[in-house]
Amino acid sequence: SRREGFSAIPDVKWEDVGGLDLLRKELDQHIVSRIKYPEKCERFGLNLEVGVLLYGPPGCGKTLIAKAVANEAGANFIYVKGPELLNKYVGESELAVRTLFSRARTCSPCIVFFDEVDALTTNRGKEEGSVIDRLVNQLLLELNGEDKRRGVFVIGATNRPEVMDKAILRPGRFGKLLYVPLPVARERCLILKALTRNRPLDASVDLDAIGRMEACNNFSGADLAALVDQAAQIALQDDLSESETIKTAHFEQAVINISPSVGPKQR
Ligand code: ATP
């Protein structure tokens, strides 16, 4: 459910995320441990709440891993799409940002996830005093309010880090840049394992071999999720006759209909 203002601890576990081990370590260090052990962090002089920017091609797990971070930390999670904060009526965008952070504070510890955060950037040749300018200023105000921000962590996601506002990429804001790449073959195998964790997979299926098939080259996590869904769908059809599990043949049939969604320019 993505009802506006809806916050809850997400049910995405680390086991649901395939690969991305280094990223996990970074996020553990910068966010999870700060939420779990605030006194320790303070004792070591780490007072500023951290903000992270996840960047990389679409469908490679930015949203997924942010939810897993919240789950691991036992924190609430608020999902916002950057463009949804933009409102042409005077003052409405600033109000939306203020309301968002006040909600986040009331349910802290809380992670606010800004999808498509590049929509909130002033570096686009827009005139001074535009809606975006004012919105970004309000955002910076909220991110700067150290005491007020206790327990509120921000994670942004973008496919286009190069258009981001420099002012927004400072420590305490979205200052920690972490790349979420397109998976390589080994990682595709790990993602397939995560995606089939709760499915009736036939014992004969070799996920390592499937992840390494040439047809899976350049597949994103989202493409692999589509592959697993299709294979399951085909298996279900078969089930009406005899199959009770997802078999290799189902994957081989499914892969024919899927092509990489991330083009060479986005990689
Ligand atoms: P976008 O930039 O389009 O918002 P994203 O990077 O946030 O994309 P997600 O929404 O996290 O991508 O991924 C989409 C779906 O693809 C996930 O819900 C999941 O099913 C699958 N997926 C992507 N990456 C992974 C991964 N590393 N492990 C397991 N599943 C993944």
Properties at a glance:
9 helices, 267 residues, 5 strands, alpha/beta, Spastin
Indicate the topology.
Blueprint: H1 21-36, H2 38-43, E1 51-55, H3 62-73, E2 76-81, H4 92-106, E3 110-115, H5 131-144, E4 152-158, E5 176-179, H6 185-195, H7 207-211, H8 221-239, H9 248-255
Parallel strand pairs: 1-4, 1-5, 2-3, 3-4
Helix pairs in contact: 1-3, 4-5, 6-8, 8-9
The structure holds adenosine-5'-triphosphate.
Give a structural overview.
It is a single chain. The protein is of the alpha/beta class. It contains 9 helices and 5 strands; from the N terminus they run ααβαβαβαββαααα. It has helices at 21-36, 38-43, 62-73, 92-106, 131-144, 185-195, 207-211, 221-239, 248-255; strands at 51-55, 76-81, 110-115, 152-158, 176-179. Strands 2-3-4-1-5 form a 5-stranded parallel β-sheet. The two termini are 30 Å apart. 40% of the residues are buried. The model has no long low-confidence stretch (mean pLDDT 89). Adenosine-5'-triphosphate is lined by residues 17-20, 58-64, 115, 157, 159, 180, 191, 194-195, 221-222, 225.
Beta fraction of the residues? 5-15%
Mean pLDDT over all positions: 89
The total beta strand count reads 5
The hetero compounds bound to this protein are:
adenosine-5'-triphosphate
Element string (H = helix, E = strand): HHEHEHEHEEHHHH
Helical content stands at: 25-40%
Distance between the termini: 30 Å
**Uncertain segments:** none
Structural class: alpha/beta
Shape type: elongated
Largest sheet: 5 strands, parallel
| Total number of helices | 9
Protein name: Spastin
Organism: Parasponia andersonii
Subcellular location: Cytoplasm
Family: Belongs to the AAA ATPase family.
